[in-house]
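1st attempt posting a full record on here, be nice pls
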Amino acid sequence: MRNILLLNPNSSKEVTGGLRNVVASANNEEATITTESAPEGAPNSINDTATGVQSAIECYKRDYTNYDGVIVACFSQHPLIPMLKEKYRFKQIIGVLEASITAALLSPAKKFGFVTTSTHWIDEFENAVRDTIGASSSERYVGTTCSDFAVVELRTANEESVNAKLIQCAQELVDRGARTIILGCAGMAGKSAHIKQQLQEKTNQRVDVIDGIGVAVDQMKMLVKLL
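the predicted structure (as tokens):
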């Protein structure tokens, strides 16, 4: 039995609860998924580089010895990922951003884009795509749209308003040619099925919607088998 930690690197219990609901059915005889929040000293929301660094410092203080793999559930090139890889060299450490890009590149739908929270993440996502592909640009990546909801607001604001905005952002990407949409924030976990249905009804197109948390868990369950 392998033990996997799904770590919300902010201290929001609402976001962690959403993650826990998404992966509730992922446990099996081969792997157990534990979902936890960052320590209370971590920021409630990761909105920029500074809060990402604060989050990494607080999360790094805890012990991860009992886990075979750790998923850092933040859609960013979170500094905790290389920190843990350096300290725990014989464990699997991944982030949801890289897992989502990998899944999009494997999709039969050629073009993809992100729906995220704010414009701060646009450059970071472009850099992550470039690093993953190994090229300065790609015709497959159509860009990123922003909901203007912070990560915690995605779980606490009016659900109908949140979903409507996410669908609007996703539809803009479809209009640019994307047929795979990545929900680029942990606060969007669990919304992929609804958004996919609404998108296909509105656009009359086959559109795949990637929940980064789900694909990261699937990838990690395969990776820990290699240990």
